[in-house]
Design goal:
The protein is mostly helical and 452 residues long. It is built from 16 helices and two strands.
Length: 452
């Protein structure tokens, strides 16, 4: 077994910091590449003769066969969606491989090597599309085995929760810094420099991570109190509604790093004084707003709890869905005119969709962890993380229609997608949770009487 750096009771112990910094550098590289991908595809890879890029002609012909004539932007959107869908599909599969192999550290190193191979291939236009494959699979393999190690470091549940909160901070810091550095280099020096910066960042993270010792040993399983059995149909219903609402919200949200960037570059006034902000930096703002709203959300939650007010997971998912709908209605209204869209409209959109994610993402995980059967909790958690897979399939598919139906209709469509999730929570989610709680209360009371 591993003899990595042991946990000495401190939250920020060396092993945790190594994992968190690896997460930072991986998110730096991933977010940096995502902020450039659709723009590089539109401006360079898909511009001109597709025959000069390996695989481009075949992908273009297949897309035209399925969807009819597809513009350069539409094809770029599809490729963006497929690449990101492959990443998210690889995450649960990567975690499963780590379980079978028994060495998550080896899987992290293998995933990092795959990402570096992909970034190297992406430095050349001819091999760019081929490079997306090892980059995507490597990201999923690394991500699927990295965060799982954090929980193995801490015996105490409250300490483990605080560790994951700190870990989330490192993750969002990478999401902020990656587009800032890679996007800036792409604007001022060229796309190869932005991709190269992502590769250097990832290499730094891997070197630091691999110098920290062997695999972390799992902590002894804690004894959980016995739970009264509840209706399988009610539990499954709650879980399906929760997953569906998460999938629908993320399907709308993920357009932020795809067609939104294309729209913002063409229609938004990104000037600050006499300086024009690189469009990729909007993703850094997205990460900064998310990090800020996490802090605000925790502060508000504590204030409400002190007053005896507790908002459940499903109501928070409802609020998050409404924020997502509102964000895309903002873009719909902003797209109606011909004049450049002022920056405050863009900021309002980002704040609303980031509030949606801050409300929905942790609430969905919390609901699944509390309701799912213990013997199947890993399955349900894996299904939760597939939200990125389905969302990016939708992003790629829907992007084809951006130029066909126009920006206002396109953004209204995404408001509708998030709205379906809101409707699901209202019509099915909240009633199912109430019914489940009532049944749990009755069953627990019966168990207590039988044990007396």
């Amino acid at each position: 077994m591993g003899d990595g750096i042991p946990n000495d009771g401190r939250l920020l112990n060396p092993r945790f910091l190594a994992l968190a910094m690896m997460e930072f550098w991986e998110r730096f590289a991933m977010a940096g590449v995502k902020s450039l991908l659709v723009l590089i595809l539109v401006d360079h890879i898909l511009a001109g003769d597709l025959a000069r890029v390996i695989g481009a002609s075949a992908i273009g012909e297949a897309s035209a066969l399925l969807f009819g004539p597809v513009s350069r932007t539409g094809l770029a959107s599809q490729l963006y969606g497929y690449a990101n869908a492959l990443i998210y599909l690889s995450i649960p599969l990567g975690g499963l491989v780590g379980d079978l192999v028994g060495s998550r550290r080896l899987m992290v190193a293998s995933g990092g090597a795959g990402m570096l191979l992909g970034l190297t291939l992406m430095l050349g236009e001819r091999s760019f599309l081929i490079g997306l494959i090892p980059f995507a699979i490597g990201t999923g393999l690394l991500k699927g085995n990295l965060s799982a190690q954090v929980g193995l470091l801490f015996h105490d549940e409250s300490q483990r929760r605080r560790a994951y909160t700190a870990y989330l901070g490192f993750l969002n810091a990478g999401v902020i810094c990656g587009p800032l550095v890679c996007g800036g280099l792409e604007v001022f020096a060229g796309p190869a420099y932005g991709i190269g910066a992502a590769g250097i960042a990832l290499a730094i993270g891997l070197v630091v991570y691999l110098r920290t010792g062997r695999d972390v040993d799992p902590v002894p399983a804690t004894t959980r109190p016995a739970q009264a059995p509840v209706s399988g149909a009610a539990v499954t219903g709650v879980l399906i509604v929760a997953l569906a609402s998460v999938y629908l919200c993320f399907a709308a949200y993920e357009q932020v790093s795809n067609i939104f960037l294309v729209w913002a570059r063409a229609h938004a006034d990104l000037r600050l004084g006499g300086w024009k902000m690189p469009v990729a930096w909007l993703l850094s703002l997205d990460g900064a707003f998310t990090l800020t709203l996490v802090v605000v959300s925790q502060w508000v939650t504590r204030r409400l709890e002190r007053r005896g007010i507790a908002i459940g997971a499903m109501p928070q998912m409802l609020l998050g869905g409404l924020c997502c709908v509102a964000g895309y209605l903002v873009l719909t209204i902003a797209s109606l005119g011909d004049a450049p869209v002022p920056l405050p409209w863009v900021i309002a959109y980002l704040l609303l969709i980031d509030a949606a994610i801050v409300l929905i993402w942790p609430s969905g995980l919390s609901l699944l962890a509390g309701v799912a059967p213990r013997r199947l909790i890993g399955l349900w958690m894996g299904l939760f993380y597939l939200h990125g897979f389905f969302a990016n399939l939708w992003v790629g598919f829907s992007g084809v229609y951006y130029e066909r139906i126009g920006a206002p209709s396109f953004w209204l469509l995404h408001a509708g997608v998030a709205g379906v999730g809101v409707l699901l929570v209202l019509v099915a989610g909240l009633p199912l949770v109430r019914a489940l709680r009532a049944r749990q209360a009755i069953t627990t009371s019966a168990w207590a009487k039988a044990a007396a």
